[in-house]
Amino acid sequence: MSDSLERLYQAVIAARDLDPATSRTARLFQRGPAKMAKKLAEEAIEVVIDAVNGKTDAVVRESADLLYNLTVLWAAAGVKPEDVWREMARREHMLGIAEKLPKSTVKPPKAIPDKAASAKALPKAVTPPAVRRRIVALEGRSLRKRH
Questions:
Q1: What whole-number distance in Å separates Cα of residue 57 and Cα of residue 50?
Q2: What is the pTM of this model?
Q3: Could you give the CA distance from residue 13 to residue 26 in angstroms, rounded to a whole number?
Q4: What CA–CA distance (Å, rounded) separates 126 from 107?
Q5: How far is CA 146 from CA 46, 90, 115, 143, in A?
Q6: Rounded to whole angstroms, how far apart are CA atoms 124 and 121?
Q7: Which of 18, 40, 91, 137 has a CB 3.0–4.6 Å from the CB of 23, allowing a cystine?
Q8: Phi and psi (nearest 5°) for 138?
């Protein structure tokens, strides 16, 4: 698989300076990282919708689109496939291949009784812990793709 993504990455690099009128890749580079990110998000959502709806063939097609758009964004960000593989190997060594690193290893501080005490107890450099995002369940919902 890494060979396929490496070939895709090289093709993206080769196409980024082509004529945007004839090359989708060049057009994405011309429009910038925000457009690239939007296309990547759209493809990810399509993969999710097709998977939830049990459309295996569509998941395959949309996954190919997702990988293409991810590779374009990598190239724009200066990330190479081997950078990602190195991170995957590091995580595998730490956690096993089927796990991912937690978003944050910072534990929330214990509750402090009042604001006056908290101002004295916490140094100014301490930032509050990140707020966890709500998890939205997709099971049991019938989703449709937008076209």
A1: 9
A2: 0.66
A3: 9
A4: 12
A5: 8, 37, 48, 10
A6: 10
A7: 18
A8: -105, -10
Six token digits for residue 35: 């457009």
Count CA within 13 A, CB hemisphere, residue 81. 18
pLDDT in tens, 87-136: 988 888 877 766 666 666 545 455 555 555 444 444 444 444 555 555 44
Any idea which residue has 């919902």 for tokens? 141
Residue 11's SS3 state is: helix
Domain ranges of the chain: 2-103
**Rounded Cα distance, 98 and 103, in Å:** 16
Q: Which residues contact 145 (CB under 8 A, 6 or more apart)?
A: 46, 49, 50
* Cβ–Cβ under 8 Å, residues 50 and 139: no
Arch. (CATH architecture) of 2-103: Orthogonal Bundle (1.10)
Kindly state the tokens that stand for 100: 């991912």
